[in-house]
Design a protein that fits this description.
Family: Belongs to the NipSnap family.
Strand order of the largest sheet: 3-5-4-10-7-9-8-6
Number of strands: 10
Oligomer: single chain
Largest sheet: 8 strands, antiparallel, barrel
Distance between the termini: 50 Å
Helix content: 25-40%
Number of domains: 1
Structural class: alpha+beta
GO cellular component, one term: mitochondrion
Protein name: NIPSNAP domain-containing protein
InterPro entries: Dimeric_a/b-barrel, NIPSNAP, NipSnap_domain
CATH architecture: 2-Layer Sandwich
Radius of gyration: 20 Å
Pfam family, one: NIPSNAP
Strand content: 25-35%
C-alpha cells in the first residue's frame, strides 16, 4: 500500500507518493524508480518558493582577448546600478568568471525585491537612461552571446549569506524532466541537511523564465581540495546516497562550472 509523505517548507507543504522506507535488501535498481507525484492545483513555484524575490542570472560569453575590457565595462554598470538602486529595487548578489567549464564566460546574479513588477519598472527606467545604454552598446563589442534566466530560490535552502576571504564557487546546473520539479524539491529538502555542516551551500534556484525545468545549486569552498574533502565527507553520511539515487532518474542533463568572484562581486 502506498503512503503519502509530506515535507514542509517554511510556509508551504508539498508531497509525493512513496512506497515507504527502503530496507537493506532493496536493490540499487529499485532506488532508481521515480516515485509518482500527487496532483496539485497550486503552481510549482508557489509550493517550492515562499518569497516575492526574483533572481536574474545573466550569462555572458566573452570574446577571447576581451575579458579585461569587458569586466571594466561591467564594473561601471554595477556602479551605475548602485547609484540608482533606490528606484530600481535590485542589487547585485554575485559576479563570477568561469575557471573550469565554459571558459571566457561570466555569470552575474541580481536580486529584485518586489516580484516581476519591479523588473518591469527597472527595465523601463534603464532603457531610457543614456549612460546605461552607452555602457550596453560598448559591451556588445566584447561579447559573443548572452543569456538571461529569471529564477526563484528554493525555500528549503539556507538563506544566502555573503562570503569573505578567498573562495571558489561551484555551480551545478541540472535540466530536469518536465513534471519532476516537485519530486526534486521533496528529495533535496531532505538532502540539503547533509550539506550544511561546512557552510558550503550558497544558493539553490529553479528557473521561471528562460530555459525551463533548470535547477542551479551553488556551493562555496575555500579551494578545489576543500571541495574534494567536503564532497567525500557527504558520501560517508548515512542517507546521502539514497537522496542521490532518487534524484538521478529526474535528470536529463547536468554540468558543473567552477567560478571565481570578480573584484566587484559582493560575495567573495
Amino acid at each position: 500500500m502506498k503512503s503519502s509523505k509530506k515535507l514542509n517548507s517554511p510556509n508551504r507543504a508539498f508531497s509525493f507518493a512513496s512506497t515507504g522506507p527502503l530496507s537493506e535488501k532493496d536493490s540499487w535498481f529499485s532506488k532508481l524508480l521515480v516515485r509518482k507525484i500527487e496532483p496539485t492545483k497550486e503552481s510549482h513555484s508557489r509550493m517550492l518558493s515562499d518569497k516575492e524575490i526574483i533572481y536574474a542570472l545573466h550569462t555572458h560569453n566573452v570574446r577571447p582577448g576581451s575579458m579585461v575590457d569587458y569586466l571594466k565595462n561591467y564594473k561601471e554598470t554595477v556602479g551605475l546600478m548602485e547609484e540608482k538602486k533606490a528606484n530600481l529595487s535590485c542589487n547585485l548578489v554575485a559576479s563570477w568568471t568561469v575557471q573550469v567549464g565554459d571558459l571566457d564566460q561570466c555569470l552575474h546574479l541580481w536580486r529584485y525585491t518586489g516580484g516581476f513588477e519591479k523588473i518591469d519598472q527597472a527595465k523601463a527606467d534603464l532603457f531610457h537612461d543614456p549612460e546605461y545604454l552607452g555602457l550596453m552598446k560598448d559591451r556588445a563589442n566584447y561579447l559573443r552571446s548572452r543569456h538571461l534566466q529569471y529564477l526563484l530560490a528554493f525555500s528549503y535552502w539556507p538563506k544566502i549569506e555573503m562570503r569573505t576571504g578567498t573562495n571558489i564557487y561551484e555551480m551545478r546546473s541540472y535540466r530536469l524532466k518536465p513534471g519532476t520539479m516537485i519530486e526534486w524539491g521533496n528529495n533535496w529538502a531532505r538532502a540539503i541537511n547533509f550539506r550544511k555542516h561546512n557552510n558550503e551551500a550558497f544558493a539553490g534556484f529553479f528557473s521561471q523564465i528562460g530555459r525551463l525545468y533548470n535547477v542551479h545549486h551553488i556551493w562555496c569552498y575555500e579551494s578545489l581540495q576543500a571541495r574534494k574533502e567536503t564532497r567525500e565527507a557527504a558520501w560517508r553520511l548515512p542517507g546521502w546516497d539514497e537522496c542521490v539515487a532518487y534524484t538521478v532518474p529526474l535528470i536529463r542533463e547536468m554540468h558543473c562550472r567552477v567560478l571565481s568572484p570578480t573584484e566587484f562581486s559582493p560575495t567573495q
